[in-house]
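Researcher: Next sequence.
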Amino acid sequence: MSVTPEDKFQTGLLLDLEQVVEKELDRHMSMAKEWFPHQYVPWGQGRDFDGPLDGEAWSLEQSKLSLEARESLIVNLLTEDNLPGYHNAIATVFGRDGAWGTWVNRWTAEENRHGIVIRDYLTVTRAVDPIALERARMLHMETGYEPTHGDSFLHGAAYVAFQELATRVSHRNTGRASGDPICEQMMARVAADENLHMIFYRNLLGAALELAPNETMRAITDVVKAFEMPGAGIEGFMRKSVVIANAGIYDLRLHHDDVLTPVLRKLGVFELTGLDGGGEKAREELGEFLAHLDASATKFETRREERRARKAAREG
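Model: Next structure:
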């Protein structure tokens, strides 16, 4: 099997970034705080369900959460459930040796806590139908996970830099929307992990931008233009996303202002000098896309406020 110039480029870049990964891994380990999922779950609220233990079947009135908070928590949990697929994806791109492999395994171990704590909370508090949730988990995991952002290292690094921040925003806002201080505390703890993960990947992407500015700029533009959350394969995702967006938990404005813009600003994407024709073209595409997204976000916000005003008028 012949080695292509692209393969050589990817291998060389991975080797050049090894020291960056070591540095970022050390920084992460110095900042990461040990925490335990069981300490964030109100076990005293739990009681047996129907089935072998002959407990009480779930019914909607048992949930104290709004429809919007339930849908968001379900999407967040099902997204976390596909961790085996994400592990395989980043291990394939980053490799399993040296500091790269150490990071991949550490990231996976930390991410696994998120699914554990959210599921335990939802089950103990009877916030969602546990049978429907389990069936959704089975279907989602059987569908599997295939990255849609390209299979190159640079595309993978760009995607996770944005995706981790998007997940942090979604988790944090879901906790706030829950109306439950316990849930909000739990989701804030999960979001703190996601923030550290974002910093790792963002700094890695920044180093790649210094080493290979034109190729990295193209990867960033490709990822931003085609971005979708890793849970996009969840059955009914579009419907759930509309509910979540209408509630202001995660919408186009948040995606533009709180996810894309901060990462791009930190990387200095629009101040970068020395790009060749291809790099400049990619940056121009990125700027045009962001302007279009900003306009779409404004339009969505306007329509949402109009819908809310009409609803308030009917109810008033």
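Model: Residues 225 and 289 are 7 Å apart (CA to CA). The domain at 7-315 is CATH 1.10.620.20 (Ribonucleotide Reductase, subunit A).
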